Amino acid sequence: MSTKPHPPRAERRPRRPGPGEGRVHWKKAACAAVPALVVAAGMALMTAQGALAASFAVSGTTFQVSSGRLTADGLSSYVTTDRSVDGRGRPAALLGLGDAVLSDICQSARIATPVGRVVFRLTAGGPAGEVTASSLIIDGEDLTGDARFGSAEIGRDASTLDRVPGIAGEAGKFGLQAGRVEVTGVRSNAWAATGGNFRLKGLRVEVGLNGRTCF
């Protein structure tokens, strides 16, 4: 019987993936990511601009905004016109809120892409903690919910509104304002939304085909 030691075995090199294995389809991924990047960039721009709700061209597509409960230390509202890049005007009710606290927030929009219609959905708050924003402004097509207002003034000249700093309309136009406001079951289809100093705890962004909208 031979007593010669066996030569050491060569280390096994990891197998290279074959065609199509372990690869990212960058073209498909890019198509899916573009809407999220565009909207995220737009949100960053809006936050930087603070209360300048009508200072940018709207996309021409409404999006959904919802929250279980919203409170704010003041409210001002008047009718305005948002414009898209093609110059078309879109009437909206501008709703300006002072320092606002939301139990949760959801924003969603249906967006056409080369791979089909996708849903962009942003959520925050809930178990992670409350969402806060200063000078929150929504240019809404509609808004529903159960509300409680303090010191309401309805029919006040829009140019004299003073409950929320920087929120005032044209002289002679209809306006309303109120002190502390609380709204539960908030639902709105909006053209634009801006805010300063947003704090979005538990932020989650999803983009997907046949995704869920907020409502």
Structural description of this entry:
By secondary structure, the protein is mainly β. It has one helix at 26-49; strands at residues 63-72, 75-83, 89-97, 100-102, 104-113, 116-125, 131-149, 153-157, 174-178, 181-199, 204-209. Strands 1, 2, 3, 4, 5, 6, 7, 8, 9, 10 and 11 form an 11-stranded antiparallel sheet that branches. Strand 2 and strand 3 (89-97) form a beta hairpin. It starts with 25 loop residues before the first helix and ends in a 6-residue tail after the last strand.
Short description:
With 215 residues, the protein is mostly beta strands.
Number of helices: 1
What ranges have pLDDT less than 50 throughout 5 or more consecutive residues? 19-54
Order of helices and strands: HEEEEEEEEEEE
Basic shape: globular
List keywords for this structure.
1 helix; mainly beta; 49% strand; 215 residues
List the helices and strands and how they pair.
Layout: H1 26-49, E1 63-72, E2 75-83, E3 89-97, E4 100-102, E5 104-113, E6 116-125, E7 131-149, E8 153-157, E9 174-178, E10 181-199, E11 204-209
Antiparallel strand pairs: 1-4, 1-5, 1-10, 2-3, 2-9, 3-7, 4-7, 5-6, 6-11, 7-10, 8-9
